[in-house]
């Protein structure tokens, strides 16, 4: 049963979780408008290790939310994860941020046909992807400029759930009866456990020296 430290800093949520196997041991996270990840990330990691009485030797891998998202947040999270992996001599696991966000949709939404996570990319643009209700990828991760009919292909086929900080702008223009907007949902390390375990078991590790976040758009900076 591997113990995996998971880091999510792609947006306003600075989130750290510790998993044994796929079971959540501890979660520490804070969401702020100031994107203060550089101040909180290392402190949160120290706290989670202290509170769970975990030593670096007890951790088998570090999982990082790889993007897309905030350029600055992704850089901070990646640099931290790579430093820990190098210092502790353990592998790095990278997980798509949009899939982490989509993972929040659980069995309670049994009548959902499609899951569409959205991350704000400024103006009327979002980072998005489309998944079926069993999380099979339908549309690959992309940057999308929203119009009222952007997702009609899926909405016309059945109930579709939208979540993430990018949904507000689409909610204002989409009036389709099959659109359900799940508000105040952000990527969190809490949803990284099962995905990280799958990659760990498959030994799908990143090259620590050469790994870079998946920005999708090079110039998505925080103000």
Low-confidence stretches: 219-223
What characterizes the major β-sheet?
5 strands, mixed
Which CATH-level-2 architecture of the largest domain?
A: 2-Layer Sandwich
Q: Oligomeric status of the shown chains?
A: single chain
Order of helices and strands: EEEHEHEHEEEHEHEH
Domain Gcp-like: 36-148
Protein name: tRNA (Adenosine(37)-N6)-threonylcarbamoyltransferase complex dimerization subunit type 1 TsaB
Organism: Capnocytophaga gingivalis
InterPro entries: ATPase_NBD, Gcp-like_dom, T6A_TsaB
What does it look like?
GO terms for molecular function: transferase activity. Residues 36-148 form the Gcp-like domain. The protein is of the alpha/beta class and 223 residues long. The chain folds into two domains: 3-97 and 187-202, 2-Layer Sandwich (Nucleotidyltransferase, domain 5), CATH 3.30.420; 105-182, Nucleotidyltransferase, domain 5 (2-Layer Sandwich), CATH 3.30.420. The protein has helices at 37-51, 71-88, 97-102, 152-155, 167-171, 193-201, and strands at residues 3-8, 13-20, 23-31, 61-65, 92-95, 114-120, 125-132, 137-145, 160-163, 179-182. A hairpin with a 4-residue loop joins strand 7 and strand 8 (137-145). Helix 1 packs parallel to helix 2 (71-88). The protein is globular.
Topology, pairings included?
Elements: E1 3-8, E2 13-20, E3 23-31, H1 37-51, E4 61-65, H2 71-88, E5 92-95, H3 97-102, E6 114-120, E7 125-132, E8 137-145, H4 152-155, E9 160-163, H5 167-171, E10 179-182, H6 193-201
Parallel strand pairs: 1-4, 4-5, 6-9, 9-10
Antiparallel strand pairs: 1-2, 2-3, 6-7, 7-8
Helix pairs in contact: 1-2
